[in-house]
Amino acid sequence: MVILADAVSRLLSVPTVIFVIGGTIAIVAILFGSITKIIVSRTKERTRREIAAYVAEGSIDPDKAVALLNAGQKNDDVCKKA
């Protein structure tokens, strides 16, 4: 029991608590960042598929589809490559 009490008192010491809280915050931030990136990439891929389907059925011209896919991108060179 003395060993357990000593271990608990060491865990509750101020520097250890600060590191545990900081580590927890870092892990949560990394998880939320990863989840956000996954959601954004899935949404972009779904949009690309929908635009491809509209082109396939003839509702949208291929040139307009390329413009839609490139809309909102920061680099203008991407439009020239497509």
Describe this structure in words.
With 82 residues, the chain is an all-alpha fold. It has one domain. Helices cover 83% and strands 0% of the residues. It is built from 4 helices and no strands. The longest helix has 44 residues. The termini are far apart.
In short:
The protein is an all-alpha fold. Helices cover 83% and strands 0% of the residues. It is built from 4 helices and no strands.
Strand content: under 5%
User: What's the overall average pLDDT, rounded?
Assistant: 86
Major β-sheet profile:
none
Principal-axes geometry comes out as rod-shaped
Radius of gyration: 25 Å
Unreliable spans are: none
Q: What is the first-to-last residue Cα distance? A: 70 Å
Number of domains: 1
Tags for this entry?
82 residues; rod-shaped; mainly alpha; 0% strand
Mind sketching the topology for me?
Elements: H1 2-11, H2 14-57, H3 62-70, H4 77-81
